[in-house]
Amino acid sequence: MQLPPTRIKSISEFHRLADLPKPEHPLITVIDLETLKRPLEEGTFSRVFDFYSIALKKNFHLKMQYGQQPHDFEEGILHFMSPGQVLTVSIDNSLPHNPSGWMIFFHPDFLWNTSLAKTIKQYDYFGYAANEALHLSDKEETILTGIAKNISQEYHGNIDGFSQPVIIAQLELLFTYADRFYQRQFVTRKVSSHALLSRLEEVLDHYFQSGALATQGLPTVSFIAKSLHVSPNYLSGLLKAQTGQNTQQLLHDKLIALAKEKLSTTQLPVGDIAYALGFEHLASFSKLFKTKTSLTPLAFRKSFQ
């Protein structure tokens, strides 16, 4: 039976559990994964960190699950986690385990009085489902590893009044490159993206045809994302990259398409159609319909008579 997640509250606690020397700064650390020599305990366990994690892990040969989806770290994959998220790992010691790569941990307190304290939540990949971790090319991996080495040199140097702003600047540079590489991934990984969009259509078609609109209204972005096992931010990012729309715009377009069908193929009163589509007030339905079509619902119906 899998035990409840173990919460690791500080970077010092992680160093102690991993048999690493004490961190040189209480709020940030950079770890070379080749230094993690302690044999891993076989089994499945979960961890919750109270700090941010950025990791480039290779040759782990472990089954890992972050969010809803499993993935591995045999190739160059960059993985981001926010405080409070759960990482589950299954270890089979019959498999080779020669990890390489690096990890950067930093506590939210390290960001106090910096620009990153306000902007870090804009980086959507800290909430991405694990099957959409960032897959790096060799060139991209070299760029990000170079930034990690700069942070490591600053971390292992003499900590002074310039250390924090220098490290913050390097983290922001890393995040900017990650943004660029994620956009590249949206474009190049069309097969998985198209598969997700197909599943999205299935989820929405089922919801719209089930009668749930009348009782529950439009599905929330969170509901749709959960049904697809991705984060709301990832779903919106994918849609924007592939279709130019966000999730809300897509929902409204499907709603108007269904409204057009009912207006043109039935004699139901417009008020009944509005109610069936989840609107409490006819005026709200009419306003959205006219915004999308430049016609009122009645004018649209008359165009078919």
Automatic annotation (TrEMBL):
Pfam families in UniProt: HTH_18 (PF12833)
Record GO terms (molecular function): DNA-binding transcription factor activity; sequence-specific DNA binding
Coiled coil regions, renumbered to chain: none
Keywords in alphabetical order: DNA-binding, Transcription, Transcription regulation
Domain called HTH araC/xylS-type: residue spans: 198-303
SMART domains: HTH_ARAC
InterPro entries: Homeodomain-like_sf, HTH_AraC
UniProt cross-references to Gene3D superfamilies, sorted A to Z: Homeodomain-like
PANTHER family assigned: ARAC-FAMILY TRANSCRIPTIONAL REGULATOR, TRANSCRIPTIONAL REGULATORY PROTEIN
Protein name: Helix-turn-helix domain-containing protein
Record organism: Chitinophaga costaii
